[in-house]
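Q: Protein A?
A:
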Amino acid sequence: MYRFILFTLCFSAILFYSCKQNETLVSVDPKYKKWVAGYTYGVISNGDNITIELRNEMDSSLLEAHDLKSTMDDKILNEILEISPAIEGKASWSDERTITFEPAHPLPSGQLYTVSMDLEKVANVESGYEEFVFQFATIPQKIAVENISTLEYDSYNTEWYYVDGTLSFSVHADSSKFKEG
């Protein structure tokens, strides 16, 4: 009986801890389509940019309110975009309606990101829709080893062998970081 109670307590603690570790998934309200025409979503490559396309150009009244010279002024972008976990990079206007965030480095594989945008600073939105939140993830790194064969270094000395094969990666891998051993 003691073992059963101990097992139940341990299992409950592990279950509780693992449930707390899961990321909360965000659902985007379809009503945002009034202001947002498109955005990065789903699973992307670790070298892709993050893009948000607005339905319309930034309103001239918002330009004056934020002391901006034109809709292409990047000054406001650092204030309105927040990415979690944080990513080094630069946000810029690709055109009058499209914001592009270009990461400084490739993103880690298998990571879920949450982007929060202060939408009311670039569009006249209804109450309750001031913040636009969406998520995307990067492709998990997977490695496949194929066509493995063991070969002798020297046909006269059967003590030394080498392995030959093919490695395939789901995401680009920098071969200069591999060690030969």
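Q: Protein B?
A:
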Amino acid sequence: MFAPLLSSMASPSSVLAVVRAARPQLRSRADALAFALHASLCCEGFVLVAAGEAARAQGSAALVHEVGPEGWQDAEDEYTFRYTRDGAQSGLYQLSALTAGDKLLVDAAPPAPARVAHLELRRVVSCAARRGQR
């Protein structure tokens, strides 16, 4: 199973450090949540091998080299990341997310034949936005 996504042991400070180091350009709260999920997996030892369109491509099963997150938000309201762990021997893990209203629907797929984990996350509204401030 894709256990780190379901019950991550990554500390909030380590996830924030990965996000700050990457300095992603965020367009929305969904972008922020999707990238935070990616950062959490990086903290757990997953290695990104494809993002965005490259991760959705059928031929990406041969990917084994670490890449940056470029292209991770190339599709509007859809995010896909592919990871390896312990090199090519472990197979590819895929994290896919799609926005639906105020939710981010997440599928985490470990290498076959394991089950896909489905998560439904609500996008958090900041305190400033709740007070009517931006």
